[in-house]
Each structure stands twice: as structure tokens, then as C-alpha cells.
Amino acid sequence: MLTFYISGCTPSDKEVVVKQLTFSPKGHMLHHNRVFSPDSKWIVFDGRNDETKIRYTKEIGIINIDTGEEIIIYSPSNSSIYGPGVGAASFSPINNEVIFIHGLLNANDKAPYDISRRTGVLVQIEQPNIPIFIDARDVTFPYTPGSLRGGTHSHCWSADGQLISFTYNDEFVEPNLRTVGVMFDRGKEVIVDQYAGNNDGKWYAAIVANVTSNPKLGSDDIDKAFDECWVGNNGYVNADGKRIPYAIAFQGNTKNKEGETITEIYVTDIDISLILQDSLAVGSIGERPRVAKGLNIRRVTRSEKGLAPVRHWLRSSPNGQYIYALAEDDNNLVQIIQCDINTGQIDYLTNNTFSIEYPFNLNAEGTKLAFIGNNNVYLLSLDNLEIQQLTNNPYDGNKIIGAPSFSPDGNTLVFNQFQKEKDKTFLQIMYVRLR
């Protein structure tokens, strides 16, 4: 059953002032999640001026929201046109450290930066330029349990900072079949062979969604798992009344009976003890790492059209009851939907006359969603479904891109917008004080 909630734009109770935070003549790309430090004072960015150019990007930086002080906290020492490349940085929710994509240290013309040749690297703000490799990469058989042999991407912290989710592409087996995984600190590093393309990892990594190149029509099989979120700040209560402390909701591309690709919502309940017990899940030669035995994976939605093709990451209510996503309405306009994690019930929360164009974000309280459409930034109140327009840009004006993000304290919203400087255009960080 689908329910539509009609909502419209309303004027702000006070004047909204949009300010530019960054001015240096370079890109300042914001990731889609946790761009603020835990104290809401610093914002992390990478040096891209084009979101497709991680391979060529050489800087991870932070900027102070109050003073505008800009500091580069990491830059690879061996950058070339082949990599390693860095980008897509996120702050830990509990510590002054960030994780980001890092290409392989031995990137060259034969093996440049690619979706299957990258890893997660952490840098502590107080110790800049000291990379800590979080997930281990092991391309020499027998593969070390807790390692991967491809590339991790789009790392997302759990609310308590104890786990990190990621998307994954294998190096050797069907590299284009993306899946999702998690990593966590088991108390000791994952040590692998010293070999070109290998690196030790501080945390233990595992895959939590199986994919296949040939999904059975009309089944729950998927050929792509992607763009996930953690469910709730402390997990969720399942249909049997049991609290699941950690769970990942992800998008899965399945095939309907007619052979059409439908993107649905899936959930994997995460049990660290089961992951550690199944050392064979790391896989063997000729196969990808697989999901550990005993992990519960289920399909949540069974819809006619599925989720929207606009790239976005799922978001969860703080209590884990609802998953928020994008889906097309009957007019093929992209709207925000709310999905009950246990029943799969989908409700449309917006009825805009335009399509939402980029990923959206939820504030820490779970009361407001920020999204972009018609080259403007909007706030959706989940209390009354009223929409407030925060910016007033012409559609053909300076382009806004990416996901607007709330500060942890809820006082500030930031977003990316291209700004012209003389004869060049740079991606800068803009911000709005919300209270």
C-alpha cells in the first residue's frame, strides 16, 4: 500500500542567510555523510572540483565553521596521474579522526586507481599525514580472514563509532558487481603477506550482501548491493520484538518476472560473533568473499517501480523504525519516501512539482530532512511535512550539487555550490545557520 502526504513550501519564520565558507581557488568536495566533527566545529572535505576525479585528488582538508581556518590534514607523498587518489572523507561521530578513500600506494600505469583498487584510510586530526589503513587488502592466496582483495568505498560510521560500512568491488571476480560490507575493531590487526597491492588493516572486514550476475527472475537475488545506511542509532526492534543492535539497510538491484531491474530495500542484521566464527567467508581463488553463515538478510520492500535511479544513500530514523529513500511518483518525479523496516509499508513524504536531484540527509534528532531540487536547498519537517526553501537560486544559476549535511548540534546546514572566480569556477562550501 502506498500513501501520499501532500506538502508545500512555507516561508521561514526568520530570514535565511546563506554564506560562503570556503574561498581558496580549488575544489572543496563534501561527502554524503558525517562531514562535521563531533563538536560541530570542523568540516572535512577533499580537493575535488569534479566528483569523478578521485584518482587525481591529492588533498583531504578541514575548515573551521566559525573562523574559516583551512588546514590540509593529508596529502599522499607519491601522487601521479595514476593515483593513488584520495576522497570522500567522513568524521568519526566520537573522535577527531576521519576516514576516506585511498587508492593503492603502488598505483601505476598498469594498475591505476580504480573501483577495485582502493581502501579505507584513517587520519587523526592531531596527527596529520599519518595514514592508518583500516581494512586489510590481501591478493595472495590463501586469503587472510578479515581481509578483502578489491576496493572499499563510501565508508559510513555507525552512530556509536564502533563499526564502519562500505561498498565493495572485487579485484578478481566480476569487479563490476558491487556489494556492501562492514568492518570493526576485533582487538588486533589483520596482518597479510607483504606483496605489491597488499596492506595490513587495523580492523576486520566482512561482506554482508551476496550478489550474483544472473538473478533469478522474480526472486530476491540481487546483482548489485549499494548505497547503504546504518539502521537506527542503537539498531532497531524487529517484527518479533527483539532488539537488533547493529543492522545495515541497503539498496539491492533485483529482477522482476519480466526481467526488469527493480531497486528494493534490503536489511542485514549484523552479528559480529557470527562474522568472526566463519573464517572461510573470506573465500578462495575464483570466488568473491561471501556473507558469513548465520547472518540474517531479508528483503524489506516489494514494490512495482522500486527506488529512484537518482544516486542516493538510504537514511534511517534514530529509533530504526523507518528507512528514508527516493522513489518516483506517478508523474515520474523523484520524491522522498518513508519505509517501515518491518512491514515494508511505503509512504510518500513529498509531493513536489520538481524532482529531487541529489542525495539527501537527516538531522541528528530525526526531525528534518534536507534535499536539493530545482538548484535550491529545502528542509522537510517530519513533524508536519511542511517544506521550507532555504536558498533562492535560478535554475541556471551557480550549480548546487551533492548532499546537504546537518551539523551534529543541528545548528548548521552545509552544502556544495560552484562559485565563479574570474574566469574559473570552483566547488565551494556554503552554509546556513538554522538556529
Structural class: mainly beta
Share of helix, binned? under 10%
**Beginning-to-end CA distance, first to last residue:** 37 Å
Low-confidence stretches: 1-8
Strand content: 35-45%
Task: Give the full name of the CATH homologous superfamily of the domain at 1-23 and 308-435.
Answer: TolB, C-terminal domain
CATH topology of the domain at 1-23 and 308-435: Neuraminidase
Task: Kindly report the average pLDDT value.
Answer: 95
Strand order of the largest sheet: 1-26-25-24-23
Shape: globular
**CATH-level-2 architecture of the domain at 1-23 and 308-435:** 6 Propeller
Oligomer: single chain
Number of strands: 33
Largest sheet: 5 strands, mixed
Total helix count? 1
User: Measured on Cα atoms, how large is the radius of gyration?
Assistant: 21 Å
Q: Give the class-level CATH name of the domain at 1-23 and 308-435.
A: Mainly Beta
What does this molecule look like?
It is a single chain. The chain has about 425 residues and is mainly β. The protein has a domain at about 1-25 and about 310-435: TolB, C-terminal domain (Neuraminidase, 6 Propeller). Helix content is about 0%, strand content about 40%. It contains 1 helix and 33 strands. The strands form 9 sheets. A 5-stranded mixed sheet has the order 1-26-25-24-23, with no helix packed on it. Strands 2-30-29-28-27 form a 5-stranded mixed sheet, with no helix packed on it. Strands 3-33-32-31 form a 4-stranded antiparallel sheet, with no helix packed on it. The radius of gyration is 21 Å and the shape is globular. The two termini are about 35 Å apart. Mean pLDDT is about 95; it is low at about 1-10.
